[in-house]
Design a protein that fits this description.
mainly alpha; two-stranded antiparallel ribbon; DNA-binding; homodimer; 64% helix
Chain lengths: 244, 244
Amino acid sequence: MNDSPRAWEGVLHHLEAHLLSGELSTGDHLPPERALAAELSVGRSSVREAVRVLEALGLVRTQTGSGPQAGATIIGAPSGGMSSLMRLQVAAKGFAVADVVKTRIVLECSIVTELADAGTDVDFVHATQLLDAMDSDSLTPKEFLALDARFHLSLADASGNLVVSAMMAGIRNSIESYVILGIPTIADWRTEAQRLRTEHRGILTAIKDHNAAAASAKVHSHISDYYARTRLTDQAETTRQDTQ
Amino acid sequence: MNDSPRAWEGVLHHLEAHLLSGELSTGDHLPPERALAAELSVGRSSVREAVRVLEALGLVRTQTGSGPQAGATIIGAPSGGMSSLMRLQVAAKGFAVADVVKTRIVLECSIVTELADAGTDVDFVHATQLLDAMDSDSLTPKEFLALDARFHLSLADASGNLVVSAMMAGIRNSIESYVILGIPTIADWRTEAQRLRTEHRGILTAIKDHNAAAASAKVHSHISDYYARTRLTDQAETTRQDTQ
DNA sequence: GATACAGTGTGGTCTGACCACACAAGTATC
DNA sequence: GATACTTGTGTGGTCAGACCACACTGTATC
């Protein structure tokens, strides 16, 4: 039916069409690879490549074995694909770290603006928990920054916009290695951590006060100042490190 | 070295590490699949699945044959992966069309704001050419909207931020089918086209006048009003939530 | 010198065969 | 009869080998 030059693309289009038509939706299982191969008259390897793409894009989760859990399941959590895409693009220097950071500021400012302008039905329990956890003095910089990332992500989640959420997750994921690389450039970590804690509380307070302008401004300086201090945007050219 | 449960992930990590370390960069060729398979002690099919993922993510372009053009080449155009990712996520209902449109507004407002605030060194030749092309009365709605998309994309490109550019391309691509679906809901296409033309010129003029606020406002209404008229955001089975 | 042709290396695909795994059903044991 | 164990089955994961189509490369031919 679809004699695309590449067989696996035909499989992908087939699955995409089923997705669009609603025959397949979140929670459903894809047909077994062997069945799909027979149905589309292609080799199993071609089916596998298409499924692999879907998995990389975060659309399906594959599991071995038998029973209801096994097979390729359509998953509804879209953040995974965005993360690997952006991480690899940054790794390949297709995306400049500076551009990623700029995009992060744009998105995050709009997130807090929306949150501040919204009604009182927004749930900040998770965000508050993360801030409390960050108060501990026994955290390593790496642990602290991990919580930091989760705090910012929780704001994105609170906005309810999955697209922005996924993009934020991808952004954070893509520059994670650079953030870790920047830790040593902070002379006094205790002071830095305290500063970040204060800024976080300030952002959350501004949101709760429905002061959109203040929240946006605080987010902007919070992010851009931190990257300026670690000079992360400069060292985009650094090549180091093999993580094995 | 890397006995991940899945062999193809090991290959992906291997390639990612080489990307990060700079051993591989834009324009380079990946080793031949057979060589890579032998080097990593995996089957060729596992290598192929990893390469397929990279191709889907827009990092490499594969080509058959022999010579300098053949093989898997690391490509520097990151828009492809974002497009397929977002298109499929929308198809799978992982992303709601309403959220995609909202995100588009956020990004595009920030784009025109930045363009308006920038110096005069921004090149709008391409954008202007597209606007001129859209003046033709012989265009079908589909053709008109294709030019429309390219106009908005050219603004994103003019900003120079590849991340935002790629996201805009992905956004546009993901809702393309819905945009086409919305054409019949426009009662008088000639009037609609004229309206869009005027709005486009207005946006570009505001940018050139360095009037960031006006440009942003015009973009906001340009996009949100159009989708309101076609009621696209309604027919998307949106994830229920905030009324604003 | 220009053209035609075989050679070579590449990705693309298919087939068949295993393996590991997880569940389902049947069997043995108490 | 209830439980524990064993076997069966279907799934994805991987590998090996074999072709094919393709595009370039070098050589032979005119």
